[in-house]
Structures are given as structure tokens and as C-alpha cells.
């Protein structure tokens, strides 16, 4: 039985009020999941909860870098049912426009790593006992900036590279879990717009168009590793 076939199961998705997190939450709700999600912007999270209009959506406003908030997320999930999936989607780009590494302020870089590396690991540490009990899955949202050296992307890119390697090590330490780094590619999101201030990004795909690739990952449960959305879509088309 794949993780996506646990109809009564619970998923935690961080950063679910907008963009890709919201799109994934909506798709899982349609499949019968209960979804616990959060956002730092309380108004955005409330608006998303109203739009999705599901009793199985549990919004928990707060900042994932805060220990008390992470505890709230896990407690809410365990109260709702068996926890089967954790999607670490919440990310921080850093300053916009993005500075060169030699100009990166230490406080800004620390904030990026707090959100993109330390918070996901801390949430995994809190959730892994419940996930392991149900042979669940962990999906850490990555980026092509984790594997390619783009000028001006040193803060965000290096944080995602650290998250990728963290994911790979977790996979070796927890072979009973599905542990994945998922690269969705470019999307038309607020964060992507901030990465390219003043540019037209209307040619980028909407986040909803990338969700089928993530669902394929959850449905097929391949060996643990790093997967790109475009490759999963290509495999699905050839199947």
C-alpha cells in the first residue's frame, strides 16, 4: 500500500497558504487526506482555509523556525489521526535582490538557514516516530539552485544543497521511510517573483501544474533520493 492510499491519513505541509504548498494541500484534500498546514501570515492562512473549505484542513498559524510552533503542528497532526506524510515546503529566499556571497549579511544568511535547513530537520525529528510507525514519507522541497551554481543565489542555493544532503543521510538512516528531496522547478510564485524583481515571470508554470509529479512520487514510492518534477512527469507519460 502506498502512502497516498492511506485515505484517513494525516499530512503536515509547511507553508501551505500560498504557492506550491497550497496546491499540494488542495490535492491531498481531494484524495481524502487530513492536512495540517501553517503560515507566518495569519490572514493568508485564514483565507486559504476559507477557500479550500474543508473540515479536514487544520490551519495552525505560526513560524516553523519556532520550537513551540513545530510542537503545535505535530500535536495537531497526531490528534487528527495517523501521521503518514511530512512535506517541508516552507522556504525563505533571503534578501531581494539577492546579494553576492561576499556581501551577504550574516544575520540574513542565518535566517535563510534557520528556515530552509534547521527548521525542517527539527520538524522531522519531532515527527519521525509517528512517521516510522506507519511507514510514512518525508518530502523536502528542493531547488535546482541546490545543484547549480547561479550567481547571486549563494544563500538560498547553499541552504537547499544542505537540505538535499541532509535528506540523503536521513534516507540511509531510516530505510523504512520514504525520504525524498523534490525539485519542483521554476513556478509562478511570490518567492520566485522576489528572486527576479521587476521581471515578468508569467511564462513560469502555475504550482498546480507541478502537483501531479509529487503525487506520482507518493504513489510509486521509488527508492529514496532526489527527484525532479520534470523527470517524474516524463516517466508518467511513458508509462
What's a concise summary of this model?
With 239 residues, the chain is an alpha/beta fold.
Number of domains: 1
Content of β-strand: 5-15%
CATH superfamily: NAD(P)-binding Rossmann-like Domain
Structural category is alpha/beta
Point out poorly predicted stretches.
1-7
Distance between the termini: 20 Å
Tell me what the CATH architecture is: 3-Layer(aba) Sandwich
SSE inventory with pairings:
Elements: E1 10-13, H1 19-30, E2 34-37, H2 42-52, E3 57-59, H3 67-80, E4 83-88, H4 106-133, E5 137-141, H5 154-173, E6 178-183, H6 190-195, H7 211-220, E7 225-228, H8 229-238
Helix pairs in contact: 3-4, 4-5, 7-8
Overview of the structural elements:
- With 239 residues, the protein is α/β, with parallel strands linked by helices.
- The protein has a single domain (3-238), classed as Rossmann fold (3-Layer(aba) Sandwich), CATH 3.40.50.
- The protein is 46% helix and 13% strand.
- The chain has eight helices and seven strands, in the order βαβαβαβαβαβααβα.
- The chain has helices at residues 19-30, 42-52, 67-80, 106-133, 154-173, 190-195, 211-220, 229-238, and strands at 10-13, 34-37, 57-59, 83-88, 137-141, 178-183, 225-228.
- The protein has a seven-stranded parallel sheet with strand order 3-2-1-4-5-6-7, with helices on both faces.
- The radius of gyration is 17 Å and the shape is globular.
- It starts with 9 loop residues before the first strand and ends with a helix.
- Residues 1-7 have low confidence and may be disordered.
Amino acid at each position: 500500500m502506498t502512502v497516498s492510499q492511506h485515505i484517513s491519513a494525516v499530512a503536515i505541509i509547511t507553508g501551505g497558504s500560498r504557492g506550491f504548498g497550497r496546491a499540494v494541500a488542495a490535492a491531498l484534500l481531494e484524495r481524502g487526506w487530513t492536512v495540517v498546514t501553517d503560515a507566518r501570515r495569519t490572514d493568508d492562512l485564514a483565507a486559504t482555509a476559507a477557500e479550500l473549505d474543508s473540515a479536514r484542513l487544520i490551519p495552525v498559524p505560526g513560524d516553523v523556525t519556532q520550537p513551540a510552533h513545530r510542537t503545535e503542528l505535530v500535536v495537531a497532526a497526531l490528534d487528527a489521526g495517523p501521521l503518514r506524510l511530512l512535506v517541508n515546503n516552507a522556504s525563505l529566499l533571503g534578501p531581494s535582490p539577492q546579494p553576492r556571497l561576499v556581501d551577504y549579511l550574516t544575520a540574513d544568511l542565518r535566517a535563510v538557514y534557520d528556515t530552509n535547513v534547521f527548521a525542517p530537520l527539527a520538524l522531522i525529528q519531532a515527527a519521525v516516530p509517528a512517521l516510522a510507525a506507519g511507514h510514512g514519507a518525508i518530502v523536502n522541497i528542493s531547488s535546482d539552485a541546490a545543484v547549480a551554481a547561479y550567481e547571486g543565489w549563494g544563500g538560498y542555493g547553499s541552504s537547499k544543497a544542505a537540505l538535499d544532503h541532509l535528506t540523503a543521510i536521513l534516507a540511509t538512516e531510516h530505510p523504512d521511510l520514504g525520504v525524498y528531496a523534490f525539485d519542483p522547478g521554476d513556478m509562478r510564485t511570490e518567492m520566485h517573483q522576489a528572486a527576479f524583481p521587476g521581471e515578468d515571470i508569467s511564462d513560469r508554470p502555475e504550482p498546480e501544474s507541478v502537483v501531479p509529479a509529487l503525487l506520482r512520487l507518493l504513489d510509486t514510492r521509488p527508492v529514496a533520493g532526489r527527484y525532479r518534477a520534470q523527470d517524474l512527469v516524463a516517466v508518467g507519460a511513458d508509462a
